Amino acid sequence: MRALLVDRSAPAGLRLGPAPDPRPAPHQALIRVTATSLNYGEVRFALRDAPEGAVLGWDAAGVVLEAAADGSGPAAGTPVVTLGVDGAWAELRAVDTAWIGTARAGSDPGAVSTVPVAGTSALRALHRLGPVLGRRVLITGATGGTGRYAVQLARRAGAYVIASTGNPRKHGEVLLAQGAHEVVAGPGDIADPVHGIVDMVGGPQLVQYFVLLTQGGTLVAVGHAAHEGESFPYGALFGDGGRHDRSLVTFSLPACTGLAPDLGWLADEVALGRLDPNISWRGGWDRAADAVDALLNRRLHGKAVLEIS
């Protein structure tokens, strides 16, 4: 098969080349990949740390070429969306059936490929907040792929949605159209407490937002775009004055169980036009270096999709 291989002598550290076909374990299906979406974390960290010749990639959509030998998962010929810790940037991918969602026939593989990390992280983070109907929910880093899914899903769940972005003037109109009730630049723009926070940024901003939680509120730390630590000042964790029982929750998507139904449901919502995949860059995988450069230099807001030809 062909794949995007880690090659630090090539532009963006990737080149198209031959790689061994994957050999599925009994609980894995073999997927013919048709599209993959890129995530900032994989191009910023996974690509930097991977050995030469590795095949990376978390998100992929395609078709089942060979069903799992143990009988689990979808049958051969089924369109699917898949999640994994590697292997998405290739023509063939072996995937645990627990991380395969069935996609609607005729759906756009590029749009569906945005679901695994961004969409499912947003969905599971919101689940962790508990019921949000009629409650105030803040989404930080709202212009990224996960943030935009979180805005849409929180609004669908009946929350009063506050979207935080570094440039409300530039991104406010889009975020309002996708379901935000307010778009703010930072903690100082929020006057009233919030019940839940889905945070994509981390660092000092997380500390500033945490103190906005009302009693019983939860902050889910999904992303860490600030690349800085969190230092809480004395008193920030006190429980008096209506601040009792506030929670700070860590998050790791691969540690979540039962993801296959979530992947399938999200893929269906995207295919039916009820969720916007927020594709801001799209092209053939021979242009992967352009997409990686745009992501690393923060020129993209939303998702970048590579089509596997």
From TrEMBL:
Entry-linked SUPFAM superfamilies: GroES-like, NAD(P)-binding Rossmann-fold domains
Superkingdom, natural source: Bacteria
Ranges of residues in domain Enoyl reductase (ER): 9-306
Stated name of the protein: Alcohol dehydrogenase
